[in-house]
Specification:
With 230 residues, the protein is mainly alpha-helical. The protein is built from twelve helices and three strands; from the N terminus they run H-H-E-E-H-E-H-H-H-H-H-H-H-H-H.
């Protein structure tokens, strides 16, 4: 399995020619949809903007009596969904009328990778789904993640949850206290240790999403500081 980084995702997004193309990549990476089969049945009329969720029709799980499921419009996914909606032609309900559940998207994503100047990883869509499954289980209960992505816990453990690469490094760093050290360094440099000391003291009890947000702020602060020096 391969963990698809945000940078690799962004490279593909930048190589897209339209909001619809971007939405395909975003639904795979941030929505965890099976592509192309679950793209084929998406309808604008089944997107609930008020509650930020949408219906996914799944040919793969239909035989098990689960022909459809409700998926959140994750905050990372929302801007791509909204832009594609605003650019969509009127009176066309299907989000991707040109895609069928049998249509291969292999050549499409290969061309994007070539245009972006990156080496495409194996099984690109499956590994984007696997990456998302790995991220979500760190934040939300397993039964909710399985329900959103449309698989059982046994399948998730066998085919989607990743324990190597970038994800493993994140857990190793946390176990070794690397993240706490980074936050401590940030607090010292920014000269407001009092505010962050409470965060440091309760680091392991913070939700994963909060920890990641703090680390992102630390990283961006370092980048800004480096840019000023240059």
């Amino acid at each position: 399995m391969y963990f698809v980084s945000v940078e690799e995702f962004q490279d593909l997004i930048d190589a897209c020619n339209s909001p619809k193309q971007q939405l395909i990549i975003a639904l795979a990476r941030w929505g965890g949809l099976r592509c192309p089969s679950e793209l084929a049945g998406l309808k604008w009329s089944e997107v609930n903007w008020e509650k930020n969720r949408f219906i996914v029709h799944s040919p793969k799980t239909e035989k098990q009596g689960k022909a459809m499921r409700i998926v959140p419009i994750f905050h990372e996914l929302y801007p791509f969904f909204r832009e594609a909606f605003e650019a969509a032609p009127e009176n066309v309900d299907r989000v991707f009328p040109e895609i069928t559940d049998k249509k291969s998207l292999g050549s499409f994503i290969a061309k994007l990778a070539t245009r972006a100047g990156i080496e495409l990883w194996e099984k690109p869509f499956q590994n984007m789904r696997s990456t998302r499954a790995t991220e979500l289980i760190e934040i939300y209960p397993a039964h909710m993640v399985n329900d959103w992505l449309g698989h059982t816990e046994a399948v998730a453990m066998a085919h989607y949850r990743q324990t190597t690469g970038q994800t493993a490094e994140m857990f190793f760093d946390r176990a070794a206290g690397v993240q706490v050290k980074q936050v401590k360094e940030f607090a010292h440099v920014q000269a407001f240790p009092a505010d962050l000391q409470r965060i440091i003291d309760h680091w392991d009890t913070l939700p994963a999403e909060v920890r990641q947000t703090i680390l992102t702020l630390v990283k961006h602060s370092r980048l800004r500081k480096k840019a000023k020096v240059l």
